[in-house]
Amino acid sequence: MARDDPLAWARDHTPILRSFQEEYGDEQPLDGYTVAFASHLEPKSGVAIETLNVAGADVLFAPSEPKSTHGDVVEALDAREGIEAFAWEGMTDAEFDEAQQDLLERGPDFILDDGCELIAKVHADHPEVAESVLGGGEQTTAGITRLEAMDADDVLQFPVYGVNDTPMKHFFDNVHGTGESSLTNVAITTNSIISGKDVVVAGYGYCGRGIARKARGMGAKTIVTEIDPRKALEAHMDGHRVMSMAEAAEVGDLFITATGSREVLRGEHFERMADGATLANSGHFDVEILLDDLAQMAADVSHPKEGVTRYHMPDGRRLNLLAEGRLVNLTGPYSQGHPAEVMDTTFAMMFVAAYDMLVDDPGLSPGLYAIPDRLDRQVADRKLETLDVERDEPTESQRAYERQWEHPDSSF
Ligand code: NAI
User: Fold this and answer.
1) Average pLDDT over residues 150-178
2) Which of 42, 178, 263 maximizes ligand 1 atoms within 8 Å of its Cβ, making it the mutation to test the pocket?
3) Domain ranges for the chain
């Protein structure tokens, strides 16, 4: 039996990207541009890379995380004319960094990034390349945080669209995508039930909210930890128990971090956890669970199951760490990342960011920009069309009402 194209299944489930391929395949609006693309390299991002190439761009791609690369996808893309891989499965951290540097030396015109990997490196290590980059887009919260810092320091050399901050990205990818895929991967990796467990979610932002909601939907007893008083209150009003991590550490069966910060779970918490507690991270970087503390506290370390590292505490308690503390939904042995339908909207927004800055609205000055709302709405409408879902249009009278500032019946 012939081996299927590794992108085929994802292509079937990414109708917006397919619609871009159909619309721009002949016209080739990105012809003449070289687009650098960093992402977790698996079938869905493969379709995004393919879509940029079908629209005319030469694409250079690298991973945004060394352990989430699917080798068959990389090989299939690299074999296509106009696409070049700076990635392979099983890269070390050093090779990952080197490959990104090699890509940047090729002087891309545009950078579509994940975690501000390429954009930070082009500014730090290849300033002469940064000067000629026309623009960029960033798809995740962690990357936006770094870009905000770069923007505040006034060091950005080109305009960047904050794709993560569009409703079409974070309301779906972060909430539903991270929510479902994190829990799915925890359940598959551990082969344990989530229903009835005390599940502690650190961070009640878009991702944490999705994880907590869906864990409750699966029958878990949810606990949320937060540092922001409004988010803590929101979690409380949504019906989750809210407490400090010190308190939660004593009750949790499963801990999932999604804060974008670091050392959220550390020694003082590991000391309080019960035997068999499971720890997973959904945040972008592998710094949310302090692995050094785990390693120092443990008398022994074992691997009871693929994807699980067990830390044996001197008092006999065993703490189970999933996916080495890296993104649990993307880097574990069974991880497939977000559902394709969700990544369809995220990558559509990345495509739109490149199209708008290169074709429709070039010449923005350097800085971090919100994607214009009209583009977000256009992608939402495309998505609704693919789902065969209809929405209402406001009537003329309703439009006029929106523009009116005086009370309609006002007599003053
Ligand atoms: P967000 O900014 O909406 O939420 C983060 C929340 O964590 C905030 O409410 C903040 O107050 C809270 N927080 C910060 N430090 C904390 C601490 N020490 N303890 C408890 N709460 C704390 O960010 P979002 O979009 O939810 O993203 C969170 C992380 O997940 C980021 O690193 C992001 O890049 C990553 N991410 C991961 C995905 C995945 O596939 N696993 C997908 C999308 C984002």
Assistant:
1) 96
2) 178
3) 8-169+338-387, 175-331
CA proximity to 117, closest of 178, 68, 55, 173: 68
User: What is the pLDDT averaged over residues 197-204?
Assistant: 98
The class of domain 8-169+338-387 in CATH terms is alpha beta
Beta strand 83-85 with 110-113 is unpaired
Ligand 1 center–CA 12 separation, angstroms: 30
Tell me the C-alpha distance between 74 and 39, whole Å: 12
What is the distance in A from the centroid of ligand 1 to the CA of 48? 24
pTM for this entry: 0.90
Beta-bridge partners for 410: none
Residue nearest atom 1 in ligand 1 by C-alpha distance:
205
Average of pLDDT values for 123-140? Answer: 97
CA of 302 to the centre of ligand 1 (A): 29
User: Mean per-residue pLDDT for 253-262?
Assistant: 97
Nearest CA to ligand 1 atom 8: 205
- Give the C-alpha distances (Å, rounded to integers) separating 108 from 20, 120, 124, 218: 22, 14, 16, 45
Asked whether residue 410 carries a pLDDT value surpassing 90, the answer given is no
pLDDT band at 173 (very low <50, low <70, confident <90, very high): very high
Nearest ligand 1 atom, CA 141: 34
Q: What is the pLDDT of residues 86-100, one digit of tens each?
A: 999 999 999 999 999
pLDDT(411) > 70: no
CA of 215 to the centre of ligand 1 (A): 17
To test the pocket of ligand 1, the residue of 146, 163, 284 to mutate (highest count of ligand atoms within 8 Å of its CB) is: 284
Q: Mean of the pLDDT values across residues 306-320?
A: 98
Task: Identify the CATH number of the domain defined by range 175-331.
Answer: 3.40.50.720
Residue 246 has pLDDT above 70, yes or no: yes
Share of the chain above pLDDT 70, in %: 98
Kindly report each contact of residues 21-26 with a partner whose C-beta sits within 8 Å and lies 24 or more positions away, as own/partner.
21/50, 21/51, 21/54, 21/55, 24/54, 24/55, 24/56, 25/54, 25/55
The binding-site residues of ligand 1, defined as CB within 6 angstroms of any ligand atom, are 140-142, 170, 173-174, 178, 202-208, 225-228, 231, 258-261, 264, 282-284, 327, 329-330
